[in-house]
Amino acid sequence: MNPALNERLTAVATHADTLGRGDKSAYLKQQAAELGMSLATLYRKLEAVAVKPSRKRRSDAGRSELSLDEAKLISSALMEAMRRNGKRLMAVRQAVEMLRANGKIEAARIDEETGEVLPLSESTIIRALREYRLHPDQLLQPDPVNRMKSEHPNHCWQIDPSLCVLYYLPRQGRDTGLRVMKEEEFYKNKPKNVIKIEQDRVWRYTGTDHASGAIVARYYFGGETSANLCDFFIYMMQAKEDIAKDPFRGVPRMVMLDPGSANTSAAFKNLCKSLDVHVQINKPGNPRAKGQVEKSQQHCGNGV
């Protein structure tokens, strides 16, 4: 539409709003004839130029009918009924029914017209949990992190030991002594069985180069000790026979580890100090800080 037509239509719409129903229809028919268009086309064009008033905001907008205290109880019940792997064992509806039956919450509203007490719907409760930031999806979100960037290979190495499900006994004839820790023999109610083979368990030390993603692994006896850590670190720095299979060699600028006793030992720190290697000890309970090597453990045998 051209500016002249827009101005004419705006004037028509403004005048039509001041007329009654019968007068308005006759007026619009007259204007449609003068403009050489059908009445339906005129209505469509008036719709395009008309300024519609914004919808009035509800007086109770932003207020939830579920109280914060009740939302906390529902959220707590949902989080308690959850396995460590994050699998949920209870739906919102089940949690609300259980808490209502025990008289812990009402989760209801009062009908202003009839005065009747009506239970809140499941969708209303879920919406309220999200408004209070108490929904399990929100509470289980990981903390925001920044991806670490390495400048080049040997800039940053990550090392992580992992206890395997294997152990060795003294060789007897053709018996190599290799055993698997079966669950029915080694569990919390039989600690003596674990003590018997404690020094014969196999530990896998895994190291990664953060820039290239290269992985190296080696197996040790005796547990997570400073001697095993130093030996593995020296092995990583040594030149290997086949560079295609074992690209690790040289001294890194820094090495990243968990805050274990072996990792923070004087023996390992003195080794790194003599090589001018910075030791980065991560905060406890933060495995994502060295997620590359944690993930690499799965590629190296998944605990086998």
Unreliable sequence segments: none
Q: What's the CATH C level of the largest domain?
A: Alpha Beta
Q: What is the average of the pLDDT values?
A: 80
Distance between the termini: 75 Å
The CATH topology annotation of the largest domain reads as: Nucleotidyltransferase, domain 5
Biggest sheet overview:
6 strands, mixed
Count of alpha/pi helices: 11
CATH superfamily of the largest domain: Ribonuclease H-like superfamily/Ribonuclease H
Number of strands: 8
Number of domains: 3
Global geometry = elongated
Fraction of residues in H or I helices: 25-40%
CA-atom Rg in angstroms: 36 Å
Beta content comes to 5-15%
From the 3D coordinates, which CATH architecture of the largest domain would you assign?
Answer: 2-Layer Sandwich
Describe the 3D structure:
With 304 residues, the protein is of the alpha/beta class. The chain folds into 3 domains: 3-49; 68-139, no CATH class; 156-299, Nucleotidyltransferase, domain 5 (2-Layer Sandwich). Helix content is 37%, strand content 15%. It has 11 helices and 8 strands. Helix 2 (21-35) crosses helix 3 (39-49) and helix 4 (68-80) packs across helix 5 (92-101). It is elongated, with a radius of gyration of 36 Å. One of its GO terms (molecular function) is nucleic acid binding.
